[in-house]
Input
Amino acid sequence: MRKKIVWMIILACFLPFSLFASWSFAYDSWEGHPRISAGLIPTGIRAGIVNDDLSLFADWKTNLYLLGKVGYHERLVWQNPLSGAMLSTNPLVYDQLLFDWTIGLRQYFGSPQKHSLFVGYRGSYEKALDSMIVGTVLDSGTVQTLSSWFSGGDSVYGPLSGIGTNIGLAYQYNNLVDTLTATDGFSASALLWFGPMLMNANASYVRIEGKAQAAKTLFNIREQEKNLYSIVISNRVSSSIVFGSSIPLAVQQNATLGSKVRGFGTFQFPTDYSLANQIDLRFNGPEPFLSGFFPRLALFLDFGYGWGELYNTSLAQSDFIASTGVAVTFTVRSYMDIGYEMAYLLAGENYEYPGSKMVGKILARLQF
Output
């Protein structure tokens, strides 16, 4: 009897380790608030755990993701609440408290498993709050409270607070080899997210996205396994199609044309269809002390076209925007990039900075 009790105690002690031994930390992304340390401090992080010990098919890897996010962010939105027409002044400015959670399964296949399929569910809860800078006069206008901004009514936005439910399917092909100072190959992905009204209080939409990237190392000098100097050219193409009777802002922020062309705002040029191209010429400096620590100068040229109807309206709209510029960053291995980007607007206007052709931005990327 005592032996059985001892064995039961041993099993009870080791059971948690056996359950979680195949799970590891997974980091997805972070986001800052522009009014808090210029957005350099994370005010929202999406992370969780991943089980990479599954195998639904022999010799093919399967990953199970459990991710969550808590965030506090700002939104600047540029549609008139009554007509849905684009605004050039006095946008909607408010803060957002966000909780979201994702459960997803990614199945790799092929040899050497460069192809993968993903299916997942993402739920969210958003709470809209008055901006922390209410009453401040920005270049684009005076920041108002939510009640004041919507005082004339609303036929476009709907409730800004509530629960959202989304189902996603994705395919990815990855043959891109990136060692930070040298990048070669090709990658492509296709994504389908839909949020049916049956599962949402304020959403009924379908979003389709396609992305492709090709890169080539043009020049590379190395010494003792450290980079002295390299030049990489990269080209990225991204496209979005969004349609539905109620497209929430959480969906719009990743699909607008303005979010795809550097120098423009996230919620600018919100049309059903958008297509953009980004060309980068990167000059990677020396790694003087440790591998992975080096400066980078990138020259870029972006252009894109959006057409169709403005979100949640029947108003036809088409826009061509373009920018060129330079970004100077310092890279810390694959974990972090920090620097500054300056874009010159060749076509189109960023209404957050009316009349300005030069738009600067602090860059900060964190990756685990």
